[in-house]
Amino acid sequence: MTGGYLKGRIRREDIIAAAVAVYAEAGYHGSSLREIAKRAGITHAGLLYYFPTKEALLAAVLERRDAENVERERLAIPPGLDFLRHMLALAAHNVRHRGMVDLYSRLAAEAVAPSHPAHDYFARHYAVAREHAELSFRAVAEAGGLRAGVDPAQAGLCFVALMDGLQVQWLTGPERVDLVAAMRFYLEGVLTVPLE
Amino acid sequence: MTGGYLKGRIRREDIIAAAVAVYAEAGYHGSSLREIAKRAGITHAGLLYYFPTKEALLAAVLERRDAENVERERLAIPPGLDFLRHMLALAAHNVRHRGMVDLYSRLAAEAVAPSHPAHDYFARHYAVAREHAELSFRAVAEAGGLRAGVDPAQAGLCFVALMDGLQVQWLTGPERVDLVAAMRFYLEGVLTVPLE
DNA sequence: CCTACCGATCGGTAGG
DNA sequence: CCTACCGATCGGTAGG
């Protein structure tokens, strides 16, 4: 007699997982509720019982991405050298989980349009990422670990931008780009302390 | 009695210009021949008289982008410090021509899928860009202008990736990102010679 | 959750 | 170059 709610939550998770896969392949505008529903094993009308519109499903996907990141990526990590190290580990993790990188890169490019339903999400995401990176470089600088003359704000902006740009090149030709080595190259050029 | 061919060429240019604008706003998959045709002042069937399929129009757009770049960007510039300076000038140019940056960023992200009709174009584009940047840093190194221990290959890859990543952040919030200053920051951190 | 349906839009073709 | 059309697909709703 119990379990009704549980089943619903599992269904929701199935649908979200299917949406992540399809968004990654086709982008948001390019994907259809029917294709997502099929992969989740229901009809598209059934999907709309759980998520009333196409946009509501996108919102749920972005929410779950954040929830995962808060748990695993731990923005809770205080800004500083450890955070930069952690981003390197995240890059290594991403290389083994192409789906999430695909999703992120496709949606970020689509969402530059202010009318895109994920625009505000990415504007906020970038602001937070830049801020956290800048504070990290600033903390490292105060500990004497930053090369002379390096501006923490610029270093933070470039760190975030580099990660994004490398991901697109890596997705385009995975065998041609060593994402983690390139990130390490950048950090080693800016820091005066060892990374590990 | 003359001019028939000329008129056709002008029409083609109108259609391509309209396609650039629509691709930039909606991506390739997200744009329709009807919308592009409307902006060019004809019907979608009329457009198909000039470009027989949706893919043929995309190919024409990419070809024109290359033609423009060969002329203005001059990959003819030999690898070296002048090429890096030129990329800075190109970044400054891009900031005043958002449409081309939009088009490029949207298509690049879409085209990471090997099945995308522009995939090979971007794979080649990235390979050429990395190669040219690497050779530039190598030339600078031989003239003693590269900081000790900097690998030209990594510096080239990161230079190209940084440009792409900055463009997406700049498109998402133009008032929050100074694209040219960030590029300059990166170059000044890697080079030991002044940029201007 | 499904069946059945709606109006809108898509790329492409026929025929002129 | 246009009118007129095709089959396919879209997001969403009704009604159960």
Which descriptors apply to this entry?
homodimer, Tetracycline Repressor, domain 2, 2 domains, DNA-binding
Ordered list of secondary-structure elements with their pairings:
The structure is a homodimer of 196-residue chains.
Chain A: H1 4-26, H2 33-40, H3 44-50, H4 54-72, H5 81-95, H6 98-110, H7 119-142, H8 152-172, H9 179-190
Helix pairs in contact in A: 1-2, 1-4, 1-6, 2-3, 5-7, 5-9, 6-8, 7-8, 8-9
Chain A binds a DNA duplex (16 and 16 nucleotides) through residues 11, 32-34, 42-50, 52-54.
Task: Write a structural description.
Two copies of one chain form a homodimer. Chain A is mainly alpha-helical and 196 residues long. The first copy, chain A, folds into two domains: 61 residues, Arc Repressor Mutant, subunit A; 124 residues, Orthogonal Bundle (Tetracycline Repressor, domain 2), CATH 1.10.357. Chain A is built from nine helices and no strands. In chain A, helix 2 crosses helix 3 and helix 8 runs antiparallel to helix 9. The longest helix of chain A is centred in the middle third of the chain and has 24 residues. Chain A is elongated and about 60 Å long. The N and C termini of chain A lie far apart (54 Å). Chains A and B meet through helix 6, helix 7, helix 8 and helix 9 of A and helix 6, helix 7, helix 8 and helix 9 of B. The structure holds a DNA duplex (16 and 16 nucleotides).
Brief sketch in words of this structure:
2 copies of one chain form a homodimer. The first copy, chain A, has 196 residues and is an all-alpha fold. Chain A has helices spanning 4-26, 33-40, 44-50, 54-72, 81-95, 98-110, 119-142, 152-172, 179-190.
